[in-house]
Amino acid sequence: MSTLTRLVLGSVALGLPYGIASHGETRQVAADAEVKAVIDHALGAGISVFDTAPSYGMAEQRLGQLLPPRGIAVWSKLSNLPTDGDLGERAKRSLAESLARLNRDHVDCLQWHNWTAQLAASRQFLAVWESLRDDPRVGHLGASTYGVEDALTAVRSGLFDQIQIEWNLLNQSVLDAVAGEAADRGVQLALRSVFLQGVLTAKGESLPPALAGLAAPRRRAKRMAVAWGLSLNALALRAALDHPARPLVLIGPDRQSQLREILDHAGLPPLPTNAFEELRGLDLAGAPETDPRTWRF
Description:
Largest sheet: 8 strands, parallel, barrel
Distance between the termini: 40 Å
Order of helices and strands: EHHEHEHEHEHEHEHHEHH
């Protein structure tokens, strides 16, 4: 699988304000014209997989308006569904509403958003999930998880064809923990947050006070990038693409210029063969600051 075909365009930044630059008084969603430019450029470059969710604001609707009906794959999610009451009806309704917004009759992968290990023991969840596996509107089944325990349980459960996990230079622990078993069990891994919501790009030069603890690790990562003749965001992307596990890699540009830069970096030569021995020194071993769910601005 080539580098380009392993890129997945994530759409959260196309549907709502996202990342460290979105916090504060200037929070704005990307304009229609900019979203169209991003999608058109992605399609023209050969990106053929798009990830979205009902909780991503306007993202599903925008993709439904801009994506061609054939020749590309679309992933979506079941978002924020309580597991009490009639979970089956809520799941069916969520899927139907997503398909209507996406202007499609099926999704290539339906993911449970923020799946947790506790759900593996929920008879209600298991029954609904089994019914979705037979639903003609659904191609593959997947999950997005946080942390080692949930990701490892998801890999071992046999419930998912694909699992989306967090990974970046400062938070490498989940992939290290699950890559071997995922390969053995034929579970596809997809990495999200490779730029840590902008911390590992130029936007991170001036971090909010709440993220001050990431400043020194970020400087170390930047020095390493410079030593290899790269920018920090180029290293962040190349490290994900060149990882020995060969995962899919989600990117989330909200501007065409960002996408152009990402595609340029995707075309760079691979990292040196000894790179990952050095890159492990950047890992903060799951420190809370590397989890955007803990950020408070």
